[in-house]
Design goal:
The complex is a heterodimer of chains A (151) and B (746). Chain A is 33% helix and 14% strand. Chain A contains 5 helices and 5 strands; from the N terminus they run E-E-H-E-E-E-H-H-H-H. The mean pLDDT of chain A is 98. In chain B, helix 3 packs parallel to helix 4 and helix 19 packs across helix 20. The chains are: A alpha+beta (151), B alpha+beta (746).
């Protein structure tokens, strides 16, 4: 039995301890905001926070997160009004939208560590997150707006 | 056009409540109507509920262009509805909507008139209803922001109040309709937010991968590693021991042609995604032999290049190229190559389907729900009308999701399992079993006179055709492929010949964002740049002089090939060199071409290409890093795509096209060895990341009242040649084979 907290709620899991967190979120809890994109930690679509830090849910086995706090896009803000979510809408970042929850979670983790990131900080933090529609320029702008640095 | 008040029909019941006013506007796309006018009864639907809620059906699929928001916005604006009281419903697949194939950059072009007509018709019917209610002339009644107003008396009535009366009105004739002036638009041209924006940033957006049905099993499929082989023997003992596995199913081999049939293989059905994927790895499958097992990309490339050096089928002929080349002061030849490419949308293919009582219901991330109906009905031997296809949001499409093989898999497996089945492709499945963008080799030769003017131009392309997907014997480029930047090179060259050679496919070939324009534009616009340097001229000046005087070119048929022109008549959408010239001039000016001379490892490169009836010029700035690899600090697009409805979504499509084009140029390459695709995920099929994408993209839209043209695709073709043209100016190195990664440049 693995116990953990997801978006503040206690959850437990019995099953293959090697199963990645991604499928627990999606299949067991129906928290489908966390997306599958590669299964190898290469694209960032499944980014969540584990104990406050960005992690790729597709390569995070359930056995590694016993007792941890997981935050998903569904738990980022109560009303969808996290500064990043607002900035994302202000900049009309999303095209297809599939990778955007992962992008936002990655950016949220960046802003926790570096509330006033530089361009280089943003590029370093965000280059693990692929957007095939090509919204990178707007992502960079939205992160800066949310952080209140010159966009 | 005529609008009729429809009796309520089955497929509307899911959307409109009883008592709603439902209008139907015939909405055949021009292309489709020409194909078979009599067989189509397509319509788009608008409903107004008695509480005033306006329901607008989006019959096109949303994969990031914004079409699901923008077409309904156009209808709401023409009706003068309050956008806050509009609900957009996604259509199921049904031919009555007209073409739903969200592909070919034609949603606005094909539906602009019909959508406006639907809005204007409803508006007039509501005004007539109010006029009869108040016994005043209809000319004095006007819909204003969701209510009909009679200024003189101050009477007002909400749209919902008038529904009953409006529905008894005769549908207006086309000549009676009055359209809003663009100056009066409330939502169009105003960058109104997309309807799915809130759902997307909160993770609530529902994509194909997220779709579910009660009691469903999840399937992961081991497909034949070589195209054309099938299951010879399977041992599923270990797979079935995995907890959660319900059963395995061997899928039949498809009978050619491929079409949208499933590839065959062995499916593992389980109660969780993880169990299905894990158990699949434990399958032991032996595969039958396939003639494609010899396929090897290096040898295949040589074969294509060799064929391109020999005379081939002529697809366009002007003057006498052989004489011009023989008499030229200088000649130049070059060979270009673009490898196989994979679409790699962020969401791999996924669909859930249930077969029950001889009917199929599916939820799928699809660009073409009517193709789903056709493919599923054929595979299961049921009627097309018995396939209900709901369309989810698409996590990217790029052409991959207009081929519904994965929906066929889900339907077949549901029939076998007797339960709903969701098929989920892994990234590895997506990259190894795509309908690939064709590999292509081009041979180019030109002759210049003493002044440097091009007097003769020969171009040959050889590639496996998309036609092979629909006719296993197809070897030559189809009319639409030849019409994409090959038969329609708009240069003012007195002697010009275009040719195309045959090639055999060894994998599934499909269309990917901008299709054959990708390799054609790469060769044509790299080569004209080479000629500029050979002539000692500035590339922009040389491009403009080669384009020649402003004129409209009519491309004549050559043999049995007609000029495709995106299915549009050339009189209506001519090849207009003035529009191409204008975008070249704007891109040059806005990028600062004249003042930014190459130096310190930085340079600009240009390419300008007409595709999907739009005229696009791109100037790309590149910078050589100390590691010898390029960076792309800036792209300037000048865009003439006729009338546009949502400037910001036009811009965003071009921003995206810059990144998509950068992926193709920098690192896009799929290869095969022993018939098997060698790439499998983003580590060996990389796509552009933030640091590899253009850093700044400036989109300069030419204001236009011309007919609407394509937006989603035409930004892609000029990018790879513009990048390579910039590299040449920065380094003196001419890249004729993509991707740049092969040359250590990315």
């Amino acid at each position: 039995m693995i116990r953990l907290k997801i978006n503040g709620t206690s959850r437990q899991y019995e099953g293959d301890p090697d199963m990645p967190l991604l499928w627990f979120l999606r299949d067991n809890l129906e928290l489908t905001g966390t997306k599958y994109g590669c299964g190898m930690g290469l694209c960032g679509s499944c980014t969540v926070h584990v104990d406050g830090k960005a992690a790729r849910a597709c390569v995070t086995p359930m056995k590694s997160i016993e007792g941890k706090n997981v935050l998903t896009i569904e738990g980022l803000s109560a009303k969808g009004d996290h500064p990043l979510q607002r900035a994302w809408k202000q900049c009309a970042v999303a095209q297809c939208g599939y990778c955007q929850p992962g992008q936002i979670m990655q950016a949220a983790s960046l802003l926790k560590e570096k509330p006033k990131p530089t361009d280089a900080d943003i590029e370093a933090a965000m280059q693990g997150n692929i957007c095939r529609c090509g919204t990178y320029e707007r992502i960079r702008k939205a992160v800066k707006i949310a952080a209140g640095v010159q966009a | 056009m005529s609008v009729t008040v429809l009796s309520r029909r089955g497929f509307l019941d899911t959307i409109f409540s009883a008592g709603a006013l439902v209008l139907s506007a015939p909405l055949v796309s021009e292309a489709a109507s020409k194909a078979d006018a009599a067989a189509w009864h397509p319509s788009v639907y608008l409903g107004i509920e008695t509480d005033g809620t306006v329901l607008i059906v989006s019959h096109r699929s949303e994969m990031g262009t914004g079409i699901r928001s923008v077409l309904p916005m156009l209808l709401a604006d023409e009706l003068d509805a309050d956008w806050k009281r509009v609900k957009v419903e996604q259509a199921i697949g049904d031919t009555r909507y007209g073409s739903q194939n969200t592909d070919g950059s034609c949603s606005i072009r094909d539906f602009y008139d019909a959508i406006r007509e639907a809005g204007a018709s409803a508006r007039l019917m509501l005004e007539r209803a109010a006029a009869s209610k108040w016994n005043v002339p209809v000319g004095e009644c006007q819909v204003k922001l969701h209510q009909v107003v009679h200024e003189k008396s101050g009477k007002k009535a909400g749209l919902g109040e008038l529904v009953k009366l409006a529905s008894t009105q005769q549908a207006p004739k086309a000549a009676e309709l009055k359209f809003k002036s663009p100056a009066d638009y409330r939502y169009i041209g105003k960058d109104t937010p997309m309807i799915d924006a809130d759902d997307i940033v909160t993770g609530k957006g529902q994509f194909g991968y997220d779709a579910k049905m009660p009691g469903m099993l999840i399937a992961s499929i081991e497909r034949p590693p070589v195209y054309g082989s099938s299951v010879a023997k399977v041992d599923d003992t270990e797979a079935r021991k995995v907890a959660g596995v319900a059963q395995t199913v061997t899928l039949d081999k498809f009978q050619p042609p491929q079409m949208f049939k499933q590839l065959g293989g062995v499916a593992v059905l389980a109660n969780s995604t993880w169990a299905a994927m894990q158990a699949r790895k434990k399958l032991k499958v032996e595969w039958t032999a396939s003639p494609n097992a010899e396929y090897e990309s290096g040898a295949y490339k040589s074969k294509l290049a060799e064929a391109a050096r020999k005379p081939q089928k002529v697809v366009r002929k002007v003057g006498d190229v052989d004489a011009a080349l023989a008499g030229a002061a200088k000649t130049h030849e070059a060979e270009y190559y673009v490898p196989l490419l994979s679409h790699a949308p962020m969401e791999p293919p996924a669909a859930v389907a249930e077969f029950k009582d001889g009917k199929v219901v599916t939820w799928a991330a699809t660009q073409n729900p009517q193709a789903v109906q056709e493919a599923v009905s054929e595979a299961l031997g049921i009627k097309k009308e018995d396939v209900t296809c709901h369309v989810t949001l698409l996590g990217g499409g790029f052409g991959r999701k207009s081929k519904p093989d994965y929906v066929v898999e889900a339907a077949l497996l549901s029939k076998k399992a007797g339960k709903p089945v969701k098929v989920v492709w892994t990234r590895e499945d997506d990259i190894r079993f795509d309908y690939y963008h064709a590999v292509a080799a081009m041979y180019m030769k030109a002759g210049l006179d003493a002044s440097g003017k091009t007097t003769g131009w020969l171009q040959r392309s050889v590639f496996p055709t998309i036609g092979s997907t629909f006719n296993a014997d197809a070897r030559y480029g189809q009319e639409f492929e030849m019409g994409m930047g090959w038969m329609d090179v708009p240069f003012d060259i007195p002697n010009h010949r275009a040719e195309n050679g045959p090639a055999q496919n060894h994998v599934r070939i499909g269309w990917m964002r901008s299709v054959a324009n990708i390799y054609h534009a790469f060769a044509v616009h790299s080569f004209v740049d080479e000629l500029a340097h050979l002539a000692g001229k500035d590339p922009v000046q040389y491009l403009l002089s080669t384009l020649g005087p402003d004129r409209k070119i009519t491309i004549p048929p050559e043999g049995d090939l007609k000029y495709w022109n995106n299915t549009m008549p050339q009189e209506k959408y001519p090849v207009d060199t003035a529009r191409l010239r204008r975008v070249i001039e704007i891109a040059a000016e806005k990028s600062g071409w004249a003042n930014k001379k190459p130096g310190n490892g930085r340079a600009l490169g240009i390419a300008a290409h007409r595709s999907f009836l739009s005229y696009i010029a791109a100037v790309v700035e590149i910078e050589m890093g100390s590691d010898g690899k390029i960076r792309i600090p800036r792209v300037d697009f000048a865009v003439d795509c006729g009338t546009i409805l949502h400037p910001d979504r036009v811009k965003s499509q071009f921003e995206g096209a810059g990144v998509f084009g950068a992926s193709i140029a920098r690192m896009g390459e799929i290869t095969a060895a022993n018939g098997q695709i060698q790439q499998s995920n983003f580590h060996n099929y990389p796509v552009a990341r933030m640091n590899e994408a253009p850093r700044e993209t400036h989109v300069h839209i030419v204001p236009s009242t011309d007919l609407p043209a394509g937006v989603g695709e035409p930004g892609v073709p000029p990018i790879p040649p513009a990048i390579c043209n910039a590299i040449y100016r920065a380094t003196g190195k001419r890249v004729r084979e993509l991707p740049l990664k092969r040359h250590g440049l990315a």
